[in-house]
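R.M. (postdoc): so does anyone remember the format we settled on? I'll just put the structure tokens first.
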């Protein structure tokens, strides 16, 4: 079932071309990596060889995710599982099209879960299994066939890195009606256990600018909860449309904790560098 839900994503133009993998999550919709979606032309090919043109419904380069629309594709959908249930040592499998081998399967175990700098400080799944060019965008699944992540790259040390299914679900839910803090942030380490979100840019007219936050300020939490990853900040904006939140931060170059109240707006301006 998982192999039949895994598709090839072919992209290209006059100057660039490439091939990756996608995962059918519902009828007519495929999730893949944003870096797989290149060029002016997109085609999705099923396990059975059915080829259909595809278009991009939404894309998020900071999460490295894209959602494609593929009409009439004969391929079953596989369910998204809960990546939060993973633990080091959990057996997993990856399906993809590495180096042109369609539907190749590799198996291994979860090595760890934690902040992944290649993914903008978001949580990543590190797995001890082999990926190769062409695996990007394919499913990482547990032994029950539940998709717990979307494979994205190999990293130093030979580990595979996947985007957790919880992050994929957040991406799928997000729409242009979501709230926004109006900032571009980069995660930074404050100490061995704490992570902050440094403001790199303010969106003109955004909630952060109106609350007199400044580039260089470091966001550390909101409503009494500390931030650990960019997902924590994004969850706040997703769940607090139109609400007033109390944000804690450090002013640039200082270590005195400050608080400011701001109202989140209905604009999709939040991004991560």
């Amino acid at each position: 079932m998982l192999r039949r839900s895994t598709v090839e994503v072919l992209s290209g133009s006059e100057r660039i071309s490439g091939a990756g993998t996608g995962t059918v999550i519902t009828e007519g919709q495929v999730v893949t990596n944003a870096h797989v979606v290149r060029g002016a032309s997109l085609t999705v090919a099923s396990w059975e060889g059915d080829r259909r043109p595809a278009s991009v419904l939404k894309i998020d380069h900071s999460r490295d995710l894209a959602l494609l629309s593929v009409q009439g594709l004969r391929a079953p959908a596989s369910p998204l599982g809960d990546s939060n249930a993973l633990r080091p040592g959990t057996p997993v499998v990856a399906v993809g099209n590495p180096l042109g081998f369609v539907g190749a399967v590799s198996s291994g175990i979860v090595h760890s879960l934690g902040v992944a700098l290649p993914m903008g400080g978001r949580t990543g799944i590190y797995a001890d299994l082999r990926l190769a060019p062409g695996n990007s965008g394919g499913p990482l699944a547990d032994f029950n066939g539940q998709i717990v992540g979307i494979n994205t790259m190999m990293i130093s040390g030979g580990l595979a890195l996947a985007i957790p299914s919880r992050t994929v679900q957040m991406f799928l839910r997000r729409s242009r009606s979501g709230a926004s803090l109006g900032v571009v942030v980069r995660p930074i380490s404050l100490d061995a256990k704490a992570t902050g979100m440094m403001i790199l840019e303010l969106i003109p007219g955004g909630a952060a600018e109106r609350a007199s936050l400044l580039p260089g300020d470091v966001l550390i939490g909101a409503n009494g909860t500390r931030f650990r990853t960019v997902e924590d900040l994004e969850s706040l904006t997703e769940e607090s449309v139109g609400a007033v939140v109390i944000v804690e931060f450090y002013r640039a170059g200082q270590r005195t904790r400050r608080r400011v109240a701001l109202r989140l707006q209905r604009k999709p301006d939040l991004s991560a560098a």
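R.M.: ...and that's the designed sequence above, right after the tokens. Also worth knowing: DSSP finds three helices and 20 strands in the chain. Confidence is low (pLDDT under 50) at residues 267-273.
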